[in-house]
Sequence to fold (143 residues):
Amino acid sequence: MRGDRPAPVRTSIDAIVEDARAGVARLTPQGAFNAAAAGAVIVDVRSADEQRRQGVLVPGAVRHPLSVVLWRLDPEVETSNEKLPLDTRLVVVCREGYCSSLAARELRRIGFAEATDVIGGLEAWVAGGLPVEPYGSRDGRPG
Fold:
């Protein structure tokens, strides 16, 4: 019954994304490429379906869909994947740069202080002529 609970506060997704980006030095695709060359880890949060639809991947990126990225990267949560130290600089990428902003904010909240994202997402990365590899190219496995 709703009588016992206060009504939820409504806010727009645009306001939520704006809040996630507040005070964060987001990176251009070229800036993200340069950061990766200097040791940052690119984290692709697109689903396998989205990766397949776009048809390309960022070479060397860690790939964990938005729905599980926090569990996969949090060093305090036991999972079968390799963990990253909390001082790792993370650069999150999605298709257009919206989901990545939300993921980067949550990664900062669990301790990855240098988590940021790519302005314009993978679409801007591709438009900028930066390196990509075809979906399904890694170890013969689907993206």
In short: The first helix runs from residue 13 to 21. Residues 44 and 63 are 5 Å apart (CA to CA). DSSP finds six helices and six strands in the chain. The mean pLDDT is 91.
